[in-house]
Here is the input.
Amino acid sequence: MILIVLQTVFAAATLVFLITLGLAWRRQPCAPSVEGFVVSAVANFFDTLGIGNFATTTPYLKFRRLTANDGLIPATMMVGYALPTVTEAFVFTNAVKVDPVLLVVSIASCVGGAIVGVVVAARLPVNPIRVVMGLGLLVAAVCFSLSNLGMMPPGGTATSLAPLPFAIVVAASFAFGILVNLGVGNFAPTLVLVSLLGMDPRAAFPIMMGSGALLVLVAGIRIIRTRPLNLPLVLGMSLGGIPAVLVAAFIVKSLPITQLRWGVVAVVTYAAAVMLHAALTGGRVPDPAEAASS
Here is the structure.
């Protein structure tokens, strides 16, 4: 019942998004961009594996100058990747067994944190947080590697948690939502957290994808109504990501647990490198929570 309610929320938000996008297309009829289709297919394949599509797409759009200016890159990605992201949410909430109460409360907590973080994040020291998170993820990657090699106790395969670790995940999800506003993605930290608490790493995917879907859909609806967009590019990105998500989701579901844990190592290491690079260069990864409020 809880999952039905959650997926009904996804469906309602998706319907509003589709109507809004359809009205934009009616005002400006156009064909989807083939380049946008290909870029989205590649980026969302890896996004489904846990490697965020914003970080991989931003430099490409900037290099190719596919938007009127660099300031429109975040808005373009949020609208273009809304449908692939909600596809991820539907697939993983259906396919991955996880405590539905934990799932819904964690998603709500992350979304709430992202909304609060629009105001709070402006007062936080961005680069020190990125350095701490990046180094923490590197340590976690090393620990996971040692576990996979049999040099430390392996992670668990649980799909639910006792009250204390349950509360830890919910509280951490709220914090991760706040940090989204600083360009610190919630994918890798969520993977690390649930694995350290003894859960199957797959359990992180519905939580990650569900919160991401709601944030991007809400932001996308507002952006379509208020911002100038490269509509052919957005349509291509919207269509290209969906089949890629379905292929990658099948891989995630079918991987043996040991191989999946090595995949976690790769994702966490990549995320740590992105965070540390952003801290050193002063770069910033755009986020849907902030766009939704602008």
Notes: Residues 289-294 have pLDDT under 50 and may be disordered. Residues 141 and 265 are 5 Å apart (CA to CA). The radius of gyration is 18 Å. The chain has one domain: 2-293.
